[in-house]
Design brief:
Elements lengths: L1 E3 L1 H7 L2 H16 L3 E3 L3 E4 L5 E9 L4 E9 L11 E9 L5 E6 L1 H19 L6 E5 L5 H9 L6 E5 L3 H14 L4 E4 L3 H5 L4 E4 L18 E4 L12 H6 L2 E4 L2 H7 L1 H8 L9 E2 H4 L12 E4 L4 H15 L1
Parallel strand pairs: 1-7, 8-9, 8-11, 9-10, 11-12, 12-15, 13-14, 13-15
Antiparallel strand pairs: 2-4, 3-4, 4-5, 5-6, 6-7
Helix pairs in contact: 2-3, 2-11, 3-4, 3-11
């Protein structure tokens, strides 16, 4: 059985590949060619969690199970926020054929979902991206947006400003040519940006809706536990369109949406699942607010694990 490291996958499997494979996989899901069980989440200590995520692709004839940890404080110890592996099995024989490190693929597939949703929901003329939270999941979220919009300016905010400077250096080293500015307060960011990416473990909203630029699109990939919140509930209530990668998962895990639902300000039935969004033509006014929320599901890991394996084998 072959083992593929993050370093090998990073060299050969890029954001454009992931967006293609996630879109193709969602088409298979819509055609009942994906089998999936709800992921098992086991809380460890504090905000640390272990996840076990199985799925089968009947079209590609592969199954995958990802085992991954999410330890938000790991960067302080020079370790990734998420670490794990995906085991890939061929359905023809039941033989396990590859194990892939899953840290990069987890970040990449979430960034791909962000890119797909942003392409459908954000204004076509959006050119300023705001990033709230520059931790482990943030980099690929930026790459996802850059893949679908002509961003010429990126605003960064992080509670620890030094980490924002490190994030800027990483973007520059990667080859990002947009102007990059570090701001000292969130309001400066939200009043200028056309799109914002939130990737935090905050327990309260990380911005004030009243300070959002009109026509803003908001991506939220943090707040992965019921007690966490990062998107302002006013944004959820006033959004013209809300898309969620997996509504069933969000009902149990997306803290701000659970809170908004309990407050009678949002109903999960109003949300569009990403699998449906890919086939929709969204008509939006320039003044509309739109939102994408990601909580992840096993089939997304399946899509990119198969895609990466097919490029690497």
């Amino acid at each position: 059985m072959k083992f593929y490291t993050d370093e090998e996958i990073i060299r050969h499997y890029k954001m454009k590949d992931a967006i293609h494979d996630v879109t193709q996989g969602l088409d298979a899901l819509n055609n009942n060619l994906i089998k999936v069980k709800e992921r098992t989440v086991i809380n460890a200590e504090e905000d640390n969690v272990m996840l076990y995520m199985p799925a089968i692709n009947l079209q590609k004839q592969f199954s995958a199970i990802k085992v991954i940890s999410i330890f938000p404080d790991n960067p302080a110890h020079n370790l990734p926020t998420s670490q794990g592996v995906t085991l890939l099995t061929e359905l023809a024989t039941g033989k396990s054929i590859a194990t892939l490190e899953a840290s990069y693929l987890t970040r990449l597939r979430t960034g791909a979902m962000t890119g797909i949703a942003t392409n459908k929901l954000a204004r076509r003329d959006a050119h300023v991206l705001g990033v709230i939270g520059t931790g482990g999941m943030a980099f690929e979220q930026v790459l996802g947006v850059l893949e679908v919009r002509a961003i010429n300016k990126i605003l960064l905010f992080n509670r620890t400003e030094q980490k924002a400077h490190q994030f800027k250096e990483k973007l520059v080293e990667f080859g990002v040519t947009a102007e990059i500015e570090i701001v000292s307060d969130v309001d400066t960011l939200t009043k200028q940006a056309d799109i914002i990416n939130c990737a935090t473990k905050s327990e309260q909203n990380v911005y004030q809706h009243m300070n959002l630029k009109v026509g803003m699109h908001v991506n939220g990939v943090g707040s992965y536990l019921p007690h966490m919140r990062e998107i302002d509930i006013d944004t959820i209530e006033q959004a013209a369109v809300i898309a969620i990668d997996d509504v069933a998962g969000a009902e149990h895990e997306a803290g701000e949406f659970i809170h908004a639902s309990h407050a009678g300000r949002f109903n999960f039935s109003e949300a569009i699942e990403l699998k449906d969004l890919i086939n929709m033509d969204i008509t939006r006014e320039d003044t509309d607010f739109t939102v994408f929320k990601s909580v992840d599901a096993a089939y997304y890991d399946l899509f990119v694990a198969i895609g990466a394996y097919e490029k690497l084998k």
